[in-house]
């Protein structure tokens, strides 16, 4: 269960939507600073060995729960999870079979309280609206970017992310004390339909984001194989973190990071 | 652009580069107990000065051949030769103030400047909840998929030394530094390798304010000792941090009679370090042994006290140094000079840098 590390500490509440073939994890509580949102879709085959779902709402169950409680249970070697009702309270029950150091079998049950969402609330769950991105670029390995942003984080609250269609990616901060620019020159841009009147491929498109939000996103380095960043100039940044093979699309975590506007 | 014109007329004051930023970063860390530092650039090298409480002065002397490339151009046009002042060249330097924390953080931007213990940072907080072993699984925790797993599982102060060997040992992170002159920022260009990212930092420089001067009168030296840094390091690390006063006591060596130093019974120790605090006191005596005290000169009984907090500022520099020279003058001014060995061998032209601390004695001990 490595994907949980990427959602780790992102938000206090999250929403999980179980359907017949995919599981979606959604973190969109507005209370979060920098407003980062995560919308992810994971094929149940890549997570669970056996999966059964039944519900009146066309076999889709959506629930809200506390991510801290969920993470605590997932840190163990969990094997069985089921939706149950205990003491009049809806819970997601995890049954963990393990071994003590002596070699004796042990079974632990964790119950995480959940709130099953009403269909009306579910209808309100919409992915944020974004215009067509200005540039798409495949990011260098996230674990290489992470230490750099970790150093930049105490220096500035805002980080400018710039990219162009020629494989150039820049992370910059500007403060009174220091200006730092980190640049990668040999990134790849995912194949797009070649347009004859494509604007200058060297043109850099930029967005200013909260350094903390970007750093939180980088925590998903544990699962990502490929990450594609899409920048909508001065508006937002969308990051698609692929779990597993790109072609196979075992799962995608979609991060929306809004752009910040600061008065110059 | 006016910048280009300036370049033609006036070359940058400093252009320097190193192939591996680690040594330079560790020298800077040795004096990083205060954020604001005064940097003086001259033909001979790069000097970083910090002061605290008008009592403690730390100076890192980084000579030009510590760098792989070092070019200095004076900012001021050459003055006409002064017949009185034949060493006008030595005074020629460029000085500015800079936030030292920022400089060190920038050098460490790729996490390769070898800072102590920061590798084990955010990583994975796996220790909070105990993991149940799956039957048939071995007891190793799920490995991290990158090198940093090594660092986070190596936690503890002992691993700091090991980090050096298991961390980035193949290639150092290179750094190029340039300073155009007063009013301009200090520019750093840092790159791990040709394929990887490059980082450009521009650190704001401020006008240098006159800093504390603590001149040490060499001819008034009452105590002079050269010893291996490891001895002093072990002694100071043993002391409880709650100590507030450190006293250094020196006694003249026993007289040499008939070519042999007569060992007087119950003779006062040549060097004694005493520390006193709320929880008690500690005394450490150094034997009259050439292996420990390589050089020892003491003209009369000496006893001066210093604030322990100031002395402990020297620990970081002491950690990486090979030899220490300890001198006290008749006013009680303590001068500690730490020899910081260069990773480059002498044949490659590497010069050892050194860091010096000067500390004023506490007044009430002066008799």
From TrEMBL, chain A:
Gene3D superfamilies (alphabetical): 3.70.10.10
Q: Where is the protein found, in the record's own terms?
A: Nucleus
Which N-terminal stretch is annotated as signal sequence? none
Cellular component GO terms, alphabetical: checkpoint clamp complex; nucleolus; site of double-strand break
Lineage: superkingdom:
Eukaryota
Q: Which GO terms describe its biological process?
A: double-strand break repair via homologous recombination; meiotic DNA integrity checkpoint signaling; mitotic DNA replication checkpoint signaling; mitotic intra-S DNA damage checkpoint signaling; nucleotide-excision repair; telomere maintenance
The record, for Pfam families, names:
Hus1
Going by the UniProt record, its keywords in alphabetical order are: Nucleus
Return the similarity comment. Belongs to the HUS1 family.
Q: What is this protein called?
A: Checkpoint protein
Q: Could you tell me which species this protein originates from?
A: Favolaschia claudopus
TrEMBL record, chain B:
UniProt keyword Nucleus, yes or no: yes
Q: Which GO terms describe its cellular component?
A: checkpoint clamp complex
**Family of the protein in this entry:** Belongs to the rad1 family.
> Composition bias, kind Acidic residues: at what positions?
138-147
Protein's cellular compartments: Nucleus
Do you know which InterPro entries this protein is assigned to? DNA_clamp_sf, Rad1_Rec1_Rad17
Example GO BP? DNA damage checkpoint signaling
Give me the ranges of the annotated region Disordered. 73-95, 117-168
Q: Which organism is it from?
A: Favolaschia claudopus
One Pfam family assigned to this protein is Rad1
Name the UniProt key words of this record, in alphabetical order: DNA damage, DNA repair, Nucleus
**Would the keyword Translocase be found if you checked this record's keyword annotation?**
no
Q: What is this protein called?
A: Cell cycle checkpoint protein RAD1
């Amino acid at each position: 269960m490595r994907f949980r590390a990427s959602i780790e500490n992102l938000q206090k509440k999250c929403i999980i939507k179980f359907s017949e073939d995919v599981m979606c994890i959604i973190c969109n509580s507005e209370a979060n600073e920098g407003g980062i949102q995560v919308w992810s879709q994971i094929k149940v085959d890549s997570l669970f060995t056996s999966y059964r779902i039944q519900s009146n709402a066309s076999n889709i169950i959506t629930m809200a729960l506390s991510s801290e409680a969920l993470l605590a249970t997932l840190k163990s070697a969990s094997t069985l999870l089921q939706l149950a009702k205990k003491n009049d309270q809806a819970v997601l029950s995890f049954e963990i079979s393990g071994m003590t150091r002596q070699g004796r079998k042990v079974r632990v049950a964790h119950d995480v309280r959940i709130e099953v969402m009403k269909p009306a609330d579910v209808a309100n769950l919409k992915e944020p609206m974004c215009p067509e991105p200005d540039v798409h670029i495949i990011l260098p390995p996230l674990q290489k970017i992470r230490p750099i942003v970790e150093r930049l984080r105490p220096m500035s609250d805002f980080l400018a992310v710039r990219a162009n269609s020629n494989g150039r990616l820049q992370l910059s901060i500007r403060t009174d004390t220091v200006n730092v620019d980190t640049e990668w020159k040999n990134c790849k841009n995912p194949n797009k339909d070649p347009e004859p009147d494509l604007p200058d491929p060297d043109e850099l498109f930029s967005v200013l984001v909260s350094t903390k939000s970007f750093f939180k996103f980088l925590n998903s380095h544990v699962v990502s194989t490929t990450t594609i960043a899409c920048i909508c100039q001065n508006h937002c940044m969308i990051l698609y973190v692929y779990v597993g093979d790109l072609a196979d699309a075992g799962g995608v975590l979609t991060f929306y990071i809004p752009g910040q506007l600061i008065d110059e | 652009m006016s910048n280009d014109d300036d370049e033609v007329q006036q070359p940058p004051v400093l252009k320097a580069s190193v192939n591996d930023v680690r040594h330079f970063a560790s020298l800077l860390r040795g004096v990083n107990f205060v954020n604001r530092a005064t940097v003086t650039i001259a033909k001979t090298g790069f000097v970083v000065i910090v002061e605290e409480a008008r009592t403690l002065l730390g100076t890192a002397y980084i000579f030009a051949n510590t760098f792989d490339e070092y070019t200095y151009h004076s900012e001021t046009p050459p003055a006409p030769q002064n017949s009185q002042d034949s060493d006008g060249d030595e005074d020629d330097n460029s000085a500015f103030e800079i936030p030292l924390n920022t400089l060190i953080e920038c050098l460490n931007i790729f996490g390769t400047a070898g800072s102590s213990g920061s590798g084990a940072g955010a990583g994975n907080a796996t220790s909070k909840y105990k993991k149940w072993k799956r039957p048939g699984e071995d007891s190793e925790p799920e490995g991290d998929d990158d090198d940093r797993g090594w660092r986070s599982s190596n936690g503890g102060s002992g691993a700091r030394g090991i980090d050096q060997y298991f961390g980035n040992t193949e290639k150092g992170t290179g750094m190029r530094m340039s300073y155009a002159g007063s009013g301009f920022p200090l520019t750093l260009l840092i790159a791990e390798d040709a394929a990887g990212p490059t980082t450009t930092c521009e650190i704001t420089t401020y006008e240098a304010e006159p800093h504390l001067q603590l001149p040490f009168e060499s001819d008034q030296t009452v105590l002079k000792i050269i010893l291996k840094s490891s001895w002093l390091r072990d002694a100071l690390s043993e002391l409880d941090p709650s100590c507030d006063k450190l006293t250094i006591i020196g006694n003249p060596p026993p007289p040499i009679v008939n070519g042999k130093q007569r060992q007087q019974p119950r003779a006062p120790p040549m060097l004694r370090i005493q520390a006193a605090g709320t929880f008690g006191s500690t005394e450490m005596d150094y034997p009259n042994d050439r292996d420990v005290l390589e050089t020892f000169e003491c003209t009369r009984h000496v006893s001066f006290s210093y604030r322990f907090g100031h002395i402990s500022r020297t620990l970081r520099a002491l950690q990486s140094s090979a030899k220490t020279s300890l001198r006290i003058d008749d006013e009680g001014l303590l001068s500690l000079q730490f020899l910081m060995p260069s990773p480059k061998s002498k044949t490659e032209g590497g010069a050892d840098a050194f860091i010096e601390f000067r500390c004023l004695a506490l007044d009430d001990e002066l008799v």
